[in-house]
Each structure stands twice: as C-alpha cells, then as structure tokens.
Design a protein that fits this description.
Layout lengths: L5 H6 E6 L3 E6 L6 E6 L12 H22 L3 E5 L10 E6 L23
Antiparallel strand pairs: 1-2, 2-3, 3-5, 4-5
C-alpha cells in the first residue's frame, strides 16, 4: 500500500477506506470536494493500474460521485485527474453550483480557499 502524500494529509480529512482507494475530504469550504487515492505503490497515472484496478477505480469514482451529487444537490460535478502538484494518483470529485465563487470556470482559478470549521 502506498503512503498518502503529506500534502493530502495536511489539506484533507479521512472519510473511509474503500476497496481500492482512500476517500478524503478536501479542506476547502468553498466547494464540497473529495479525493480518491488508490492504495497502490508508485502509480501516477490511471493506465499504470492493472485492468481490474482500473475498473474498480471507475466504480469507486461513480460511488463517490453519486453520494456527492445527492448529498449536496449538485448542479454539476467536476471529476478530475491532474497530478501537476502531487504526482501520486488521485481523483478529484468536486461539487459545482452556478452560485459558487468561480462558476463557470475551474475551481483552480479561485485565489484563496476558506478552510472548513470541523469540530
């Protein structure tokens, strides 16, 4: 199992361990936002996963997406694999609203995040 990047540990909260991925909540109150991090060593791109894990990743993305869409009554979801800052494979699932601070642009254009206020 791959260790989770220190950046993710600093900027997110553990939710649950799925079969393939760890699901974490991103610390940003402007957008409901989770990341799925596959528990595989030295993987930075989806094509590096074996076929079974590729299929499982898709199922877990769909699972997380459906929960986010229902829970937050999302107008739209952004599902992204980028990896420019943290190379460890991770998938972003971000709830979007026409009223959010960067609509209709990417969430990445928002200059300042507002951290969550969790107990």
């Amino acid at each position: 199992m791959e260790k989770i990047s220190k950046s993710f540990l600093k900027d997110s909260y553990f939710i649950i361990e799925l079969k393939l991925c760890t699901l974490r909540l991103i610390d940003n109150s402007k957008f409901p936002w989770v990341i799925l991090i596959p528990k595989r060593k030295k993987i930075s791109d989806i094509f590096q996963l074996n076929k079974k894990d590729q299929n499982l990743l898709m199922k877990e993305i769909v699972y997380a997406s459906s929960i986010m869409k229902k829970t937050f009554k999302a107008f739209n979801l952004n599902i992204e694999k980028i990896g420019n800052v943290v190379s460890q494979l991770h998938i972003h699932v971000i709830v979007r609203s026409k009223k959010d601070s960067s609509w209709p642009l990417s969430v990445w254009v928002v200059k300042k995040k507002i951290t969550l206020k969790l107990p």
